[in-house]
Amino acid sequence: MKLSMARFAFLKTALATFALGGFLFLAGAPAAKAYDRDDCYRRVNYTEMRYRQAVERFGPYSREARHWAHERHEAYEHCRAYWR
After folding, report:
1. Which residue ranges make up each domain of the chain?
2. How far apart are CA 57 and CA 45, in angstroms?
């Protein structure tokens, strides 16, 4: 059975499309990392450290200290659900 050129091109394109679609389906997006308790503790500890450094270097009423105090507060608020 002889395939016509148009049919051969169609089959070739269809095969390439399915192969690419299968690859994209299997590869997919990377798995989302759950934001768990350890990440909360890490974020709180980091912001606490940066706040203390800013207070030591620039003083408690400096712009940097206020920034890290705000970030620290947000970290505590974000992690409050894990501490209940």
Report:
1. 5-83
2. 18
